[in-house]
Amino acid sequence: MDNFTPKQIVMELNRYIVGQEPAKKSVAIALRNRWRRKKLSDKMREEVVPNNIILIGSTGVGKTEIARRLANLSKAPFIKVEASKFTEVGYVGRDVESIIRDLMDLAVSTIQKEMEENLLDEAENLANKRLLDILFPINGADENSEDEVHLVDRQKRTREKLRKKMSEGKFEKKNVEIDVLDEGSPMMQIFGPVGMEEMGMNIQEIFGSSIPKKKKKRRTTVSEARRIIIAEEVTKLIDNEEVIREARTRVENAGIVFLDEIDKVVGGKNGTGPDVSREGVQRDILPIVEGSNVNTKYGVVRTDHILFVAAGAFHVSKPSDMIPELQGRFPIRVEMDNLNADDFVKILTHPENALIKQYTALLDTEGVKLKFTKGAINAIASIATKVNETTENIGARRLHTIMTTLLEDILFEKSEVKSETISITKEMVMEKLEEIVEDQDLSRYIL
Fold it and tell me: Cys bridge to 345: 265, 276, 317, 381, which one at CB 3.0-4.6 A?
């Protein structure tokens, strides 16, 4: 991703998301600025802070999809959270600092997996050596004795032959006995004070290293034993301090937090009822967004250079109802367009993960060829638009319910058919869905 220009980032997003060019442009610039910041001097790098973004639009217009694709594209520590799930400090519920702790957990897990992949070959060599020692242990020998010297040479030649056979897979089904960690032994659950987990601390982890780990004998095949031993050796080879150091660096300099449903913690102007509590959540979010130090079980994490992308429908409230301090921390605001019938046609056909392509691939696994005429696609898009207008507007998500209803009988019955080609026409779409669309009560419950 480092080599992607903003235009290339938008082109990548276009593979999966229809329309919403201003939103794509904003996130592309934000991502590219992370790369630009890396090239600055240390002094200037510290001064440059990310321009946080608010995506404003109805449900189903692509806000969450942009977040998902952004995560895949950036390869940076990324977390998506619902702002409405957090409570003001002092209330029952999760506090907002847990967002950064969760982001750090994800980064540590990702880097551990990366290191495991890099160390796999070394771990496999060590595992094969251990297996060879089990299959053909070397006896102690006095190297000063001439007979013993011949014995050692003979053992080495034999081990070399065995190593060659092992690499050829000749011993894979042979049974061996190995020592494994006894994970099945009963463990005492240690409970800490209420809220301890919110501080990023786990008493079980604190004392876990001081409790000796039991081992037990296990008889298994060479192939399974190799898998177990490789996992053990990888764990030994990983430098946990390096993992934490790299994770903290990535989170602090490249981390991205997607705050969904931000409008749910924004109240109206009357200042009564639950709005007071909502304002408390905003005030708790503020220090993390503007830059603060958060205590985690891996140490202190700075949030000064983490990029925050917030999203909300803002049907009841509007961004200007946010507390002024938080408004100032989200300088870029992008209003996303509502989707029309033309957009739905593109969503059904253009993206790499388009719904029609998904259903075609699913039925193709059973030898059923599914084809949609242009008229059928236009009819599905038109029905989705009409139902969104007459009931609740859920955007592109309406296509999922319509496609499921349209193809329900085919998905149920065609498993019995070995090979068949089915063409979905406009007439079939109208016959299946027209009555439901006309009856608004049915539309509310079925579509």
Answer: 381
Distance CA 178, CA 216 (A): 8
Provide the H-helix boundaries in 238-340.
Answer: 240-254, 275-290, 324-328
Q: Are 223 and 178 within 8 A, CB to CB?
A: no
The 8-class DSSP code of residue 308 comes to E
Domains and CATH numbers, the chain: 6-106+251-335 (3.40.50.300), 116-139+148-245 (no CATH), 341-438 (1.10.8.60)
Cβ-contact 363, 411 below 8 angstroms: yes
Considering 62-71, 123-132, 345-354, 417-426, the range whose residues carry the highest mean pLDDT is: 345-354
Query: Beta-strand (E) ranges in 249-408?
Result: 256-260, 293-296, 299-302, 307-312, 332-335, 368-372
- For 177, phi then psi, to 5°, come to -110, 125
CA angle, 32 as apex, 31 and 35 as ends, to 5°? 100
Q: Which two tokens stand for residue 162?
A: 């065995």
183: tokens are 């994970």
**How high is the pLDDT of residue 33?**
87
Average pLDDT, the chain: 80
Contact status, residue 368 vs residue 416, Cβ threshold 8 Å: no
Which of 412, 405, 413 is closest to 431 using CA atoms?
405
**239 phi and psi angles, rounded to 5 deg:** -90, 100
CA distances from 168 to 134, 157, 221, 403, 430 (A): 18, 17, 16, 51, 62
pLDDT of 335-363, one tens digit each?
988 888 999 999 999 988 899 999 999 98
Angle between helices 6-14 and 21-38 (to 10 degrees): 140
- In what helix (H) or strand (E) does residue 372 lie, and over which residues does it extend? strand 368-372
CA distances for 325 relative to 100, 255, 263, 316, 329, angstroms: 20, 22, 16, 21, 7
Distances (CA, A) of 442 to 104, 342, 401, 436: 46, 25, 13, 6
Backbone angles phi, psi at 296, to 5 degrees: -130, 170
User: ∠ CA 161-163-167 to the nearest 5 degrees?
Assistant: 120
Model confidence over 32-80: pLDDT tens digits?
888 888 888 888 988 888 889 999 988 888 888 888 888 788 888 999 9
d(CA 8, CA 73): 11
Identify the bridge partners of residue 422 per DSSP, sorted by sequence position: 370
**Closest by CA position to 289, among listed 261, 328, 249:** 328
What pLDDT digit, counting tens, does each position of 220-252 carry? 777 777 778 888 888 888 888 999 999 999 999
Instruction: Give the global pTM.
Output: 0.77
- Could you tell me if 308 and 49 are in contact, meaning their C-beta atoms sit under 8 angstroms apart? no
244 token code pair: 């934490």
